[in-house]
Design a protein that fits this description.
single chain, mainly beta, four-stranded antiparallel sheet
Length: 218
């Protein structure tokens, strides 16, 4: 007779697959109001202060976002920053000025900046307008090169120059100063990488605005 012996074991905990938690930073919010690169038409007067107006800001929802941080700048100076749970806000700003703005979508896994937008508040300008934030275009061609171009605009009609910086996953890979053109030579890229382009638009009076735009390579 042959005896068969069997042994049962619960196994080792070390053989179990580790449990990994899914990380979902927010996607990018998209600003819708004020309309980019135009004088602001959606505003209200502020009672008792003719020097300022209340500007309405709206943006689209970003996936996974828990709240949104609205940042408004005049040139390089930050004039407003606050966090909102809603998709809109009202901010009192000086009349006759050019401003840039962006929205940072946030959650416990991280944060994502929107692209920069700009507008001019109604009213008689005080001094020279700050240039509008440049409208940046990033296009990846069939050779996976990154083609960078932008459109600058100034309410006073001043001639503009541009400082441009291109970053790959946060590291600067190329930069230029005092450009008078509005395009760069194609830039070689790597697959599935985040590219961010910053354009600083300067006028002859020394005023400037900062614009940023980002995209992921195919």
């Amino acid at each position: 007779m042959t005896s068969l012996l069997f042994s049962c074991s619960g196994g080792s905990d070390s053989a179990k697959e580790p449990i990994t938690e899914e990380v979902n930073p927010p996607t990018k919010a998209v600003g819708t109001l004020p309309v980019n690169g135009e004088p602001c038409s959606d505003y209200e007067a502020v009672s008792g202060d003719d020097a300022v107006v209340s500007i309405s800001f709206n943006w689209n929802a970003a996936q996974y976002a828990q709240n949104y941080e609205l940042v408004v700048k005049e040139g390089g100076n930050e004039v407003f920053r606050d966090v909102f749970n809603a998709l809109n806000a009202k901010v009192s700003l000086n009349r006759g000025r050019a401003f840039t703005w962006n929205v940072i979508a946030k959650n416990s896994d991280g944060q994502t900046n929107s692209d920069t937008m700009s507008f001019v508040t109604p009213g008689t300008p005080i001094g020279n307008y700050v240039p509008y934030a440049a409208e940046i275009s990033l296009v990846f061609d069939a050779l996976t090169n990154l083609n960078v171009s932008w459109v600058g605009k100034d309410e006073d009609g001043d001639v503009l120059t541009y400082d441009v910086e291109v970053r790959e996953e946060g590291e600067v890979i190329t930069e230029f100063n005092d450009l008078t053109v509005n395009t760069l030579d194609p830039i070689a890229t790597s697959p599935d990488m985040l590219y961010n382009v910053q354009v600083i638009s300067r006028d002859v009076s020394g005023n400037y605005s900062i614009s940023e735009f980002s995209a992921v390579s195919p």
